[in-house]
Write a structure and sequence with these properties.
With 147 residues, the protein is an alpha+beta fold. The protein has a single domain, classed as Nucleoside diphosphate kinase-like domain (Alpha-Beta Plaits). 38% of the residues lie in helices and 18% in strands. The chain is built from seven helices and four strands; from the N terminus they run βααβααβααβα. The chain has a four-stranded antiparallel β-sheet with strand order 2-3-1-4, sandwiched between helices. It is globular, with a radius of gyration of 15 Å. The relative contact order is 0.24.
Length: 147
């Protein structure tokens, strides 16, 4: 069982797509272990996107990610990281597969709806960053173990 981080970005919040995206995750059989809306500040955005800090577009990413609150989710399931990444689709919505979240809802590479951890190591780091070891719950669902 893996747990991964998902961020529903400002365009998801602004366009009223939070429920639609979460519904897709749950319909796939993934379990929501943590959920919170939060306003990101300069420090957390800089830490999260440190690998892009030297890029000329970094200031616009910071502005975008702090524009409105985001929704952070801790999501678990068998092969959760790969499953979530397949559901989200390619970073550029124009290159995402039809039926993926970014294909269906993403408008541009800058406004691509969703962030998903890309590895177990990244997920662990990002879950600590956004949940700080709190409010991630383990619980059973009636069908757990059947799937």
């Amino acid at each position: 069982m893996e747990t991964t981080l998902i961020l529903l970005k400002p365009d998801t919040v602004e366009r009223g797509l939070i429920g639609e995206v979460i519904s897709r995750l749950e319909q796939k059989g993934l379990k929501i272990n943590g959920l919170k809306m939060m306003q990101l500040d300069d420090a957390i955005v800089t830490e999260h996107y440190d690998f892009l800090a030297d890029k000329p577009f970094f200031p616009s990413i910071k502005e975008y990610m702090m524009r409105t609150p985001v929704v952070a989710l801790a999501v678990s399931g068998q092969n959760a990281i790969a499953t979530v990444r397949m559901l989200t689709g390619a970073t550029n919505p124009q290159e995402a597969l039809p039926g993926s979240i970014r294909w269906d809802f993403g408008l541009t590479i800058d406004g691509n709806i969703i962030h998903a951890s890309d590895s177990a190591e990244t997920a662990q780091t990002e879950l600590k960053r956004f949940f700080k070891g709190e409010n991630i719950f383990d619980y059973s669902r009636g069908f757990d173990g059947i799937l």
